[in-house]
Structure formats: structure tokens, C-alpha cells
Amino acid sequence: MTANSKQITRHDEDRWLQARVDLIVATLPLTAVLNPVWAGLTIIPLGGGFPEFGVIPLSTLAAVVGLHLLNSVFATVFYLWAKRTSVGVRHVFAAFLVLQLWVSMTWGMGVLLSWEEGNSTNNTFLALLFIGMTWALAMTRSVHLLVLATGTIPMIVMFWWRAATGSSEAAEVFAYFTPIFTAYAWFMAVSARDRVNQLLQTRFDLEDMAKALETARSEAVAKSQEAEAASASKSAFVANMSHELRTPLNAILGFAELIERQGVGGEVPSQYRGYARDVRESGEHLLSLINDMLDVAKIEAGRMEIDPQILDAAEAVDAAVRIVAHRAESKGQCINVEIDTGVRLHADERAFKQILLNLLSNAVKFSPEGGRVAISCRAQPDGAARVVIEDTGPGIPADKVATLFRPFSRVDNRYDSSSNGTGLGLALVRGLVALHDGKVWVENKPAGGLMAIVEFPGQSVAAQAA
Length: 466
Fold this sequence. Notes:
There is one protein chain. By secondary structure, this protein is of the alpha+beta class. Among the domains are: 3-167, no CATH class; 309-462, 2-Layer Sandwich (Heat Shock Protein 90). It is built from 13 helices and 8 strands. The chain has helices spanning 3-25, 28-41, 43-46, 58-84, 89-114, 120-140, 145-164, 169-260, 270-301, 313-330, 349-366, 398-401, 425-435; strands at 309-312, 334-339, 344-347, 372-379, 385-390, 439-444, 450-456, 461-462. A hairpin with a 5-residue loop joins strand 6 (439-444) and strand 7 (450-456).
């Protein structure tokens, strides 16, 4: 066993011991009151008022009562000390064993001092006191069997010895009865101890669970704060870098376009114009990536602002289709548009256009030569407006759908292996749709191809044309 496991075991033992000691100590105030009361009540039958119970000298009875009053003082002092002391629980437990041993011996001495030889009534009365005290200890000290044994064995031994050496018929009966009663009381004490153990285990489990939850909550708060700080730093970095990159990049694009169009004076060789075209196309791709990164960062940071307006669905869709139409034509593709008459959207014009451009560009890119792209916009029964963009591409593997809208998530395109997708387009679509309180998802078509569905909520739909 390692030192660490020993430490854990000792900690668990102390935890159980502390719980048991706390339960026992909690009974001491009642003990401090009842012990002298019960001892004092013995004066009534044994002090001469009822001769058949025997007549015990008052000095002896006073000594017995005095012992139990002293026990009450000890119990009170121990209770106060145990509540305030800073010593370990093992020291408190050891001290309590000494106290319990003393109390048990005083009760046994009380029986010996009050015993009247040959008087069955006296012997029976003392036996009842013995049974009551033993039963009380079995119930209150059963949480720890060593405490129970310390509290009962001296008293039981003294009573049994006195009954075994007595001459009355009652004494003879009690001499046989005492071991049987002791065994029964011990059995009941063990049963009570087991029930207490179950309750304590439940309490410990709840405490551990509460501590684990508090630790998890603290860790979650710390991680959340770290994530927020990291997100803020990332957003600031992306914003700053985007600004720093776009300024020289715009200059590069401008000069590349001048060279490509021979606007710098004199004839530019076709080879150099080709180089300039490559520079411009690569720069435009890089600028698109920078703009997407900046927009995604703004959305994640909650700093993207939109200005919803009433948009004519047909005009908004047509504007986006015109932008991608050239590339679709170059691949021999056709784009079909179906717009319900009178559908109007309450959306940000720039954001809506950006959503359509990203989805349409993907549809064109992932569709084969001579394929078909379709876009429709229809009002739904619940008042929502649904835009559906379909392609005839290969669709998306089921295991990729869940990650499709994450930043930098990409799917291989078997029809356009030269495309350099940024992996930010769909993440941007998701963020822009969320700003409108809408929904976006994709579905594979049974006949092949993919459907991208964007749904704007009912309050974004106007039921009639302008």
C-alpha cells in the first residue's frame, strides 16, 4: 500500500469516526440530565418509603446520587470541550472511552451498593434499572461498538456477579437471564449500527457529490472565464490582423489589376499579364478568407450587428444568383429559381445576400459539369419563410453532417479538386442565420445531391407584396 493510499484510508476512517463521535456527543446533554434524575428516583422505593423494596441507608443512596451528579458534571464538561476543542477526533474518542468506562462502573457500583440480599422485590427493581440502562446504551452508543462495549460490560459484569452470588429466587433467575438479555441487546445494537452506517454513507455520498459539483462548477467558471478571455483575445487579434492585412492586400490587388489590364503604360507581355491575373485571383481569395474570418470572429464575440429591413425575396435572390451565374455557366450548369409571389423577408440585406452567396457557391462548386442548381423561397404554413438550395453533387457523408457548420470544416469535392474553400462559409451562414433567430440545416436527397435549408421565423415574413 502506498503512502498516498494510507493517507486516504486514514482520512476515511477519521471521517467515519468523527461522524460517530458527533452522534454520541449530541446525546450527552440528555445524559447529564437523566442520570442524576434516575439515580434520585431510586431514593423513593429504597429510602424506606416502601419497605418491601428494601431499606438502604440514606448515606449510601446519597453517595450513589452524588456519583451520578458528578457524572453529569463530567458529561457537561466533556460536551463543551468536544464542541470547542481543536485536537484530533481520535483524542476526543479516547477521552470519551475513559468517561464512558467511568459512568458504566458507577452504575454497576450503584447496583452493588443498593442490593439487599435475599429480597426478590429489591433485586427485581434493580434488575429493571439495569435493563433500562443497558437498553438506553444499546440505542445511543450502538453507532460505535467499542463505545457500547465500554459502556455496558463493566455494569453487566457487576450485575451478573451480584445476581449469580445472590440467594433470592429473583437473583437466580437474573443470573441466567442476564447473558441472554445481553446477547439480545447486542444484536439489536448491531442492527441499529448498520442502519446508522447506511444513513452516514448516504450523507457522505451526498457531501462528496456536493463537493464534486462545487469543484466542477468552480472549474467550469474558471474555464468559462478562460474561454471568454481567449475568445476576446482571438477576436481582437483577428480584427487587428484583418485590418493590417487588408490594407496592403488591397494595394496588391490594385496593382495586379493594373498590370493585367495594361494600365501602367506600354504593352505588358501576355506572360506577365497571366502572372498578374494569378496574383489578383489569389489575392481575392485571400481577401475573401480574411473577410470571412473577421465576420465569424465578430459573430462569435457578439459584435456583429444587423439592420433588418423588408426585402423583396425575388430581388434579393436574383441579385445573389447573378453573382454566381458566370461560374455556373462555365461548368455548363443551370440555376432554376422559384419564388412564391409576394413573399417578403424581414432581414438584413447584406447578411441575406451573404447567406445566399455562400450556399449557392457551394452548390455550384459541388455539382458536376452540366449539373443543376435550384433555389426556392416559399412561405410555410406557420408563417415562416423557407429558402431551399439544391444541387446535384455527391451529397455529404452522414458522419460529416454534424461538423459541417463548424469553422474550418471542409468536405472533399470530387467535382472540383482545385477549389480552395476556406471552411468558413457555412460557419458564417449559421452565425448570420442565428442573428435573425432562424434555422439552417442540410439534408442529403434520396436521388443524390444536397439540400441546404434556411428558415426565417414567422415574424420575418410579410404576407403581401408591396
